[in-house]
Each structure stands twice: as structure tokens, then as C-alpha cells.
Amino acid sequence: MAEEIKADKTLDVRGEICPNPDVKTMTTLEKMEKGQILEVLLDYPLSVERIPKNAENRKHRVIKVVKVEGPDHRIFIEAKANK
Amino acid sequence: MNPLIFTGIPIGLAFGFALQRGRFCMNSAFRDIIVLKEYDLLKAVGLAILIQMVGFAALAMAGVITISPNTFFWGANILGGFVFGIGMVVAGGCASGVTYRFGEGMVGAMSAVLGLILVGLMTTTGAIHPLVVSLRGATTVTLADGANLTLANVFGIPHYMLAFGIAGIALIVWAIRSKRGEKSPKQEEEVSLGTKIFKNGWGWKATAIVIAIIGIIAFVASTAAGRSYGLAICGGYWSTVQSLLLGQNLISWLSVMLLSTILGSFIGAKIAGEAKLRAPAPKVLIQCFFGGCLMGFGAAVGGGCNITHILTGVPQLALSSILNGAFIIFGCWALAYFWFVRPMRNL
Fold first, then answer.
1. Which pTM was predicted?
2. What is the pLDDT of residues B263-287, one digit of tens each?
3. A31: which chain B residues are within 8 Å (Cβ-Cβ)?
């Protein structure tokens, strides 16, 4: 990665079952201050596809989705950026 | 052994591959309408049902297959469907969901499968079996000639007419709605077809079309092997375990298909780089197992899981499957409401 994004909070939902990665990400984002950055670590393919879409629908801003290795991904989201 | 049971291998491989690529899980499909306001998987389920409805009716007209609705035993369909629906929320996946994630290497799904097999077998052959038999017996309704109920024969309408009619109306409604909601086309990233098929998750339309085609071919192949039905899952787990562990010779088209489905999901996940053995916390593993137990009980009581009833039974217009499927959805919503919707609302 060219530049490291500094996250205010990291949420590790690797190994978790459906739909906990999605639900925990959305509830965590709701509890954060506007402009804070959440880093989500996850390995569940359906959530990797849906979290960015749902976060944008809920007025957060997806900064980056990074594929780490295998199913492992990191998603950076700015909380309430568009609220 | 009928050599034609081995047609289950290519069909299972394709089915597992498509489940994994399309993330085809009805638990997500139904639950996430209320939890995340997410409709893509639901659309995939709906479209797959409609395509198969037309395909089955056409093949039945041509005499290639026989429409084979499951017996309507409303008490068992309601109880089984509702418990199955609750179970899939607890387990974090329906029968097809936990099967493709088994292939992906998700240990939670494997734990759910274990529960599904254990309690499923206890219910179909073991201690709870007599209760199930009496519940089914007390609530069975058939036509006067003993035929199993479908929407068509209950109202005395020719099957093909109703099937084509429903699919036709759905197509018209869909065309009108999509015209109304037309947006300017999104700028999509240019990716190769290979990437679209093997690396990226499929969109709902592709998923539905591929799964429906596999479902239609499966009905024909399975009929040739002596089993007049389409895709199913739970029965495959049970007959496989009975054959391999309990020494009963029940290896069938369905068990061959099911084992290939798990392998097909693994292949799909491997190519996409999504295969990895990964486990949740021990508490969640136990939760998955318990959810699997509920699904096993529900499927054994109601005469099938969500694939038997919703994916294969509803397109045959089987009344048993429509009722059972509706209660799978109610069960799913009931628990999802208390587990996810209410807590998220209180933020």
C-alpha cells in the first residue's frame, strides 16, 4: 500500500458468521463521531461485497477496500461523512 | 447401483460452484430484507423460482419429467418450516448457505452441518420419528384420488397454464417496474469475463439463471436415475452418513450430487482465492451446531429444507412447499427481528 490510512478504531470480525460482520460494522459506525475512520478486518466474502454498498447507503464514506490475502480484507470507512 | 446416479457429479460440482460464486443463501435473502434492507439475494431466489417454474412445466408437458409435489401435511409443514427458519438464523446460513461455506472452509458452517445431520437422522429414523409420523398423518390432505396438492390441481387448472401464467405475470410486473425505476447506467469497471466468472461474486441475475438451469437439468438427470425430483440438500447429507458410517446402502443420486456440491464450492472458492479454514469463537461454533440441530429437525419434520421446498417445490406449485416455505420465512423473520432489527434500532 502506498499510503497507510490511520484508523481511529479497528473492528476484527474475521471468522464471524453471517450477518455479524455487516451488523457489527454498521452499529460501530453509528456509534462513532463524524469523520472518524473505522478499519474492518474480515474474511467473509458476502460481507466484503455488501459492507461498502450498505455503508454508502447509510451516509458513511468508503475510503478503501484492501485485499490482504485469500479471503482476508481490510475495509476503511469514514463514519457519517455524508450526513 | 444405477450408474446414472453419477450424473450427480457434474451437476453437484456446477451447483456448488454457482452457490459459492453467487453467495446463494436464503437465510441472507430473507433475513436481510428486514435487517439490512438488502434485496439482491431475494431477487435471485425469486428469479430462480420463476425460471424453474417455466422449465419444469415445459419438460412435464414434453413428458420428460413428472411434476412431483411433496405430500401436504400442514401441521408438519408449519412446524418444520418455522423451526427450520429459526435454525438458519441461529446457524448463520440455510442448507445451501452452510453447504457452500463448508466448501469455503468456514468451520462454523461445518458445525451447523454436523447438527443438521445428527438431529435430522434422529428425527427421520430415531427416537422422535413416531411423533413426526403421527403429526404428519393427522394433518395430511390429498386430492380424492390420493394425488399430492398443487396450486393447479386444487383449482382444477392445467399445470402448465398456471405455471406459464404466473411466470408471465411476474415478467410483465418486473418489466414495468424496472422501466419505472430506470436510472442512468452506472459506470462499471471493465473486467474480463474470466474475472467476472471466477474472481468476482456474481450479480443476482447471473446467479438466478445459472442455478435455475442447473436445477432444471438436475430434475431430468435425477429422474433418469430413478428419483423424480430436482435439487435438494438435507436428504443427501442423511443418506450419505447412513451409507458411510452406518453401513446402510443408501448411496443415491442425491448423496453423490451433494458431496460434489461441497467439492464444487471448494473449487469455486479456491480459484477466487476465498478458500481458507477459518473458525469463529467456540461459543459461536456451539451456536452454529445448535442452529444446525434446529434445521435438521425442521427439515426432517416438514419433509425438506429450503432447497427441497423453496427452490424445487415452489416452482412445481406444490402446496406443501408453498406453506413450508412461507413458515421458513416467518421463522427467519421472527428471530432476526429480536436478534438484529430491535438492537440496531435502539442505537
1. 0.94
2. 999 999 999 999 999 999 999 999 9
3. 347
